[in-house]
Amino acid sequence: MTESIEAKELDNGGAEAIKGFNFQKANLMLIAINNYEKNNFKIYIEAEDDIVVSYEDYKAFIQVKKQKHTLSSITKQESKKINGPDGKKITKLLPSILEKNLRSGTEDDTYKIFVKDIGNSDKKLLNIKKPGLICSEIYELGDQAKAKIIPELPAELINKIGDFYFFISPINEDLLEAEKYLIGCLNEIDVSVDNKRGRAVIAELSLTIDQKAQEVLSEKVDKEIKSMDINYFSKVFVTCKTLNEFDNILNSLGYNAVATKQIRNERLKIELNLTKLKTDMKKALEELIEHDENLIDLSNKEIIGQLVRNFESSDYSRNTLISVAIECLCEVET
To answer: Tell me, what DSSP letter sits at residue 298?
Structure first.
């Protein structure tokens, strides 16, 4: 990941600011938030391009650039000094931003460059499309823009520019403002962001993106190891409805205020690092439902108590076990 936004300390109950948060990560999160429920949705991190998005028959290759760009800047070849065969320095021309973007995929795919802004004179040569397939609005090349770009591209890439678009990102360079914006987007799709959960979701996404980005593709490494899909996002993006059901059961159990708060705080960790415990406890609950004929006479607290006793030998705290048991009960009831 490049082009990092300067990290700032934020008031989060003593927790550190989200590490490594940057413009590229934030835009990847924005794509995921707005699109993760699409059929067969996947995002690949630093595979063939900065970001690769696919769902159904759609595939997009995305370059993310924090700066303001123009048609000239995206087609300009960068130069690099390297050692020649005789040991002397020579200048090597590198592919332009646009050429690197168009080199991936096929003529059936889509290509995008995410930018902070587009130069005013060039923006007049572009046409706005609302909405795009994965973005709120995109800018496609008009005839004059194509005429400026075509002479700067290798001949074999010219047929792809009809499927090339700019996206002006709404993500702010300032970490705090970018984070607030993403939390607002989560709230718009009914993901719970209360009790600092919004920051927890962004921190989890940031960590996973880092882990995926560090994987180096080779013949022995499956490309899928660099992907995030609807199954992952559905676990992280917990809706307000789900948490309301959790709170309804928790409040019916009669625990004191301190215990209730601690159990609710443990709920934040379930999708992030308690998935194995949840799977095992859910299976235990299903077996209890199937084999206990007297279950209908038990209260929620008694059912949860049975589940907790089944896992008391584990290394988890009692509050963690109660929280996961409530979550399992919510899912069985829905």
So the answer is: S
